[in-house]
Amino acid sequence: MNFKFVAGLEIHVQLNTKTKMFCSCPTEGLDVPNTRVCPVCLGYPGTLPVINREAVIMAIALGKALNGHINMISRFHRKNYFYPDLPKGYQITQGDVPIIENAVLPLSTGKNIPIKRMHLEEDAAKSVHVSSSGRLAGAQETLLDFNRSGVPLIEIVTDPVFESPEEATLFVEELQATLRYLGISNAQMELGQLRCDVNVSVEVDGKEGTRVEIKNLNSTRSIRQALTYEYNRHVEAYKRGENIITETLAFDEKTGKTRTMRTKQSSADYRYFPEPDLPPLILTEELFEEANRYNGSFLDAYHNALSWTNKEADARTLALNKDQYMLYSSLAEKGFDKKLLNRMILIDLPNILSEVAKTWGDVDKTFLNSILQLQQDGKITPAVAKDLLWQAARGNDPMKYAEEHELLKHENIDIKQIISDVLQQNPDAVEKYKKGNANVIGFLLGQVMKKTKGTVDPNQTRALLEQMLNE
Ligand SMILES: [Zn+2]
User: Fold this and answer.
1) Does the pLDDT of residue 119 top 90, yes or no?
2) pLDDT value of position 133
C-alpha cells in the first residue's frame, strides 16, 4: 500500500489595530475581563457596526505582500450560529467573496504555497470554564469575557496542499514571520494571536482518505506533533483494514495524542447572508497607498541573513526571530565583522538570554556596540567579550567592569615573561612534556590564561608556549 499525507490549514490571525473590528473599543489591555466592551461588541439589539479602516488597510497590505487577487468590492456576511460567547447569534465575517483570493506564500525553501482565500471577520468572546463557586454544588460554571469579542481577525485558508507535517509547520512559521515583518500582527501563538486548525487525511494508493479536523493547535511544535501522530494513526488503521471516521479532534500536548471533540454528522449550515447593517466594502486608491506603510518582508530578511551567515539553518533562525534579526542588521550596518556578529548574535547572546530569562527586546544596543568595537580593535579576546556580555545581562556596565578587572589587553603585557614564569613554577609538567606527554600543554596554557585574565589570544599564546617548551 502507498500512503500519502495531505493537509490543509485554516489560520486565524489577530490584526494589530488599535480598536476592534466594528466598534471603537481598544484592543489593548484585554487582561482585566469585560473592561473593553460597549453595546456594539456586547451584541445589543439596535446597535450598528462600523468597519475598521485600518483592518482593511492591513488586509490589503497582506494581499499585496502575498501577491493575492484583491477584490475591489467584497461584502460582510452574517454567519449564524448559537453559542454563549456570541450573544448576537451570528458572527460578522465575509462570505463567498472575500477581500483576498488566490495568494501565494513563497517559502524560504523556494517552494510556493497557494493560499485560497483571506477574509476579515470579528472574534467571538472568550468562555472561561471554572469549577463551581458553590451555588450549583459540584458543577462547572462558565464565565464570559467579552474583551475579545469583536477583535479584528484575518482568516487565512489553504486547500489541502501540504505534503508533510514538516511542510505545514514551515508554512505556519514563515507566515508568522511574514505578518511580523509586515507589522500587521504580533502573531504570538501562545497568546492566541495566531490560531491554527488543520484538516488532515491520508491517501491510500492514490485514493482520497477520510478527512479529520484538529482544532486550536497553539504552537508550531504541536502542529508538527499532531500531524505526525494523525498520519501514523491513519496509516495503522488502513493497514489493519479499518476505517477512519470523520471527526473533530483536539491535541493534547502532554500525551502527544489527539482525542475526539465531536463526531461530525453533516456540515453545519450557517445560513450566510449579507450583513444588512454594513455597506459593501469598496476599496479605493487611497487605501492601497496607505497599505504601503506595511512593507517589511521575511524573505528579504532571510536572504540578507543568508548573505551574512552563509548557512541556511542560521539564516532561518535569524530571520524567523525579527527582534534578533533587527539587532544583527543594525550592527551589520555599522560595518562590524560578520564573524564577530555571528558569534555574538547567533551563539553567545541566545544562550545568555535563555539563561537569564530575558528577551531580545531587553538587550542594550550601546553595550553591544562597545563590546564589538573593543573586539574589533583587538583590545579584548572572544572569551572576555563573552564575559562582558554576561555582565551586561546581569545589569552591570560591561565597560566599567572591564576596566576595574583589568580585562583590556595592554600593549605592554610581557607574554614571554609570563610563560617563562609559568614554566618555572611547573617543572613537573615541563618534565612530562619533554617525555612526550603533549596533553600537559592544555594545563600550562590554562595557567598562562589565568595570569593574564584571558586577555591574550589563546591560539597565539599556545603557539608561543609550544615554541618555548621546545627551545
Ligand atoms: Zn466595543
Assistant:
1) yes
2) 66
Distance 143 CA to ligand 1 centre (A): 19
Rounded to the nearest whole angstrom, what is the distance from the C-alpha of residue 151 to the centroid of ligand 1? 9
CA end-to-end span of the chain: 72
Edge-to-edge strands, sheet with 77-80: 90-93, 77-80, 273-274
Q: What is the mean pLDDT of residues 32-51?
A: 96
Residues 66 and 131 in one domain: yes
Instruction: Characterize 327-345 residue by residue with b for buried, 16 or more Cβ atoms within 10 angstroms of its Cβ, and e for exposed.
Output: bbbebbeeebeeebbbbbb
Using the mean position of ligand 1's atoms as its centre, give its distance from the Cα of residue 40 in Å. Answer: 5
State the pLDDT at residue 219: 95
Q: Is residue 409 part of a domain?
A: no
CA of 95 to the centre of ligand 1 (A): 23
- Structural domain that includes position 195: 3-291
Query: Rounded to the nearest whole angstrom, what is the distance from the C-alpha of residue 24 to the centroid of ligand 1?
Result: 6
CA of 49 to the centre of ligand 1 (A): 9
Judged against a pLDDT cut of 80, whether residue 454 lies above it is answered with no
How many distinct structural domains can be found in the chain?
Answer: 3
CB-CB contact of 305 with 324 (8 Å): no
Tell me the CA–centroid distance for residue 39 and ligand 1, in Å: 6
Residue 410 resides in a domain? no
Tens digit of pLDDT for each residue in 266-322? 667 899 999 999 999 999 999 999 999 999 999 999 999 999 999 999 999 999 999
Mean pLDDT (the chain, rounded): 92
Residue 145 C-alpha to ligand 1 middle, in angstroms?
13
Q: Are residues 430 and 341 in the same domain?
A: no
